[in-house]
Amino acid sequence: MPRIARRRLWSLLLACTWILAAALPAAAQIDILSGKTLVPLEGDIGVGGPESVVTVSAEVTAPATGRPAMLSVTADIAAPWYAYAITQKPVLAIPTQITVDPSDDFRLAGDFGANLPPKMAIKDGHDFETHSGSVTWQAPLEIRPGADLQQLKISGRARIQVCNDRSCLSPTAFHFTAAVAAAPSAQAGAPVKGVYTHPNIHATIRGQLEPDAVAPGGTARLQLTAEMPKDWHIYEMAASDSGSLGYKPTLIVLTNTSGFRAGPTVASESAKVVANVVPGAPPQRYHGDRVSWTIPIEIPKDTKPGDYPIEGIIGYQTCLDVRCDLPRAARFAATIHVGPGVTAAGAVPLSFFDARYAEASKAATALASSAPSVAPVVQESEFSSLPMVILFSLVGGFILNFMPCVLPVIGLKILSFAEQAGRSRKQILILNIWYALGTLSVFMVL
Fold this sequence. Notes:
With about 450 residues, the chain is an alpha+beta fold. The chain has five helices and 32 strands.
């Protein structure tokens, strides 16, 4: 194509683009990725700007024994709007991004994580992760030795896009400044809301109870989520720790259900099965990256209105292929609000307390011993009859004769038969009996 013709084509395309942009209303544009209308920050749609939809605040929790300092950034999102999670794939939507201004007094010692797992939704075959209501992102801090905590100020911004079912606001950077506050996690024995971490354990445990209010006859769901760094894994949940696995399984036990019936615990994904490094031990079964466990809690229809505590404990161990952390546990607690005609919405973050894995193991064993015993169902194999066992033994022995370590011996054995042809039949019988007894004796010892 001549150069002049190419220039005319580009000019025509540019003109068409400007005409199409001018034809769209000034108050709205279309987000090609999500298919929603992008609404300006100010307009006549009842939205006075991002501050009327999202409020961002931040604080720093001072370091305590065994715990690093934590930076918490909280976004309160007005209904019916929601924000995309930090882990949202950017190709599909605009994820939340939190950046902190650099300083010589501190540095981020890890990535930000939400105190509650995002809500998952699938649209047109794509996954979307969102937060609604109130959500807090936390990241550990490494503070310079000698820094004055009372004078420490941390500034940054959270870039958030909020949407509803029809439209989205343009992404906005919300600036924050955080100072050190006396947080419950800095006090001995005080609970940690929504998220549990330990400096020596490569896992973050998050938990919630949803909805925050249940009508009699309804069902609440308790959810625990474990998130691990790259290459680390957490083991599959088991009813108890038998001690014969070579590792510590995940144990989740509800120690107080206020008399409500708890259903079976369901994992969000199947465990990966690999060979165990311990000789003779069963295969390892574990989850990598992220896994959630959900426990349904049924509220009887005759339940009186009020607040009912739910308590439990989770024990777990995180490992690499070559080494493991010490097993750990955390107690958790939350309250179910039961009332007639309540609207099921939102979630209650669990409060976590430090615990030992031995406590989780003891609670799991006590629960297993108190559960009604059920006789195991043994499925009889179709090859378990004696004639079939003998037949397959003969087939296996026949195949064994063609192995490289056996095949050359067959010729020697035939020669020995030929050599014994002229000997006494009694002597030959005695030799065969001794041979058979020797073979049986070796296998009995093995």
